[in-house]
Amino acid sequence: MTDSRRPRIGVLALQGAVREHVAAIRAVDAEPVEVRLPRDLVDLDALILPGGESTTMRKLIDAYGLRGPIAALARTGAPLLGTCAGMILLADRIADGDEPVFRLLDVEVRRNGYGRQLDSFEADLAVGTADVPGALGAADLHGVFIRAPLLSELGPSVEVLARDPDGNPVAVRQGRVIATSFHPELTGDRRIHALLRDLAAALDREAPGRQSKDAGVTE
Ligand code: GLN
Predict the structure, then answer these.
(1) Would 63 be classed as within a structural domain?
(2) Long-range contact set of residues 156-163: C-beta below 8 Å, sequence gap at least 24
(3) CA dist 181 to 16, 49, 69, 201, 215, Å?
(4) Are the C-beta atoms of residues 83 and 179 closer than 8 Å to each other?
(5) Residues β-bridged to residue 159
(6) Quick one: how far is CA 110 from the chain centroid?
(7) Do residues 107 and 79 touch, judged by C-beta distance below 8 A?
(8) What is the number of the ligand 1 atom nearest to the C-alpha of 56?
(9) pTM of the full predicted structure?
(10) Is residue 217 domain-resident?
(11) Are strands 8-12 and 31-35 parallel, antiparallel or unpaired?
């Protein structure tokens, strides 16, 4: 039996870093659901689009008929978290030509924007100060970057949650949409997943338009 008070958080499980997100969801006391088909989205309280390879992921999203149903879930107000390739899928604009996919985040991203020499690196990310803590608190967050996208432009309603040592934004939030250019599931720091859980727990399940079995998501 599932405990209905624990938010149900889906992870798109077509490709990429799924297992670590599932473990992170459990670690913040939410219920993980692996999403492969539109019916897996029913009654989710939140969804994670993981890292991987965004070109492959966009093809698989369409091959499995998930594009419309994921957009419908987002319209119900369910919070979304996109990490790395997942951030690319959420972005309104992709530099250098790729068509945007979900257009749920008013940012421009540059794929592999940290350069080929820096295929992968780790950095301590500033999230706020003791005097002025940010939404993620004050202590630095350790970030693992793997062929990471760079956030090259932010719209006015996008809040910066964390910056890399050069000052580039690397975690952002616009309403219920969160995105990171790094992989928060690969460290033991659960602040990003806890934020998603808190947004999911705050969802009013009775709200009009709330996802349900007959809201068209399983089309
Ligand atoms: N470079 C990948 C892309 O453009 C993203 C890498 C990742 O998710 N770790 O899709």
Answers:
(1) yes
(2) 156/106, 157/106, 158/105, 158/106, 158/107, 159/135, 161/127, 161/134, 161/135, 161/136, 161/195, 162/125, 162/126, 162/127, 162/134, 162/136, 163/125, 163/126
(3) 14, 12, 24, 24, 32
(4) yes
(5) 173
(6) 17
(7) no
(8) 10
(9) 0.91
(10) no
(11) parallel
List the structure tokens of 88: 């690319």
Over 70: is that where the pLDDT of 25 sits?
yes
Contact present, 192 and 136 (Cβ < 8 Å): yes
State whether the beta carbon of 85 lies less than 6 angstroms from ligand 1: yes
51 CB under 6 A from ligand 1?
yes
What value does the mean pLDDT of the chain take?
A: 91
Structural domain includes residue 75? yes
Which of 20, 21, 183, 193 is flagged as catalytic? Answer: 183
User: Rg of the Cα trace of the chain?
Assistant: 16
Residue 84 among the catalytic residues: yes
Q: Is 98 in the pocket of ligand 1 (CB under 6 A)?
A: no
Model confidence pLDDT, tens digit, residues 78-124: 999 999 999 999 999 999 889 999 999 999 999 999 986 568 999 99
Contact 17, 186 (CB under 8 A): yes
pLDDT at residue 117, as a whole number: 59
**185 tagged catalytic:** yes
Q: What is the CATH number of the domain that holds 29?
A: 3.40.50.880
Judge contact between 106 and 158, C-beta under 8 A. Answer: yes
Domain assignment present for 2: no
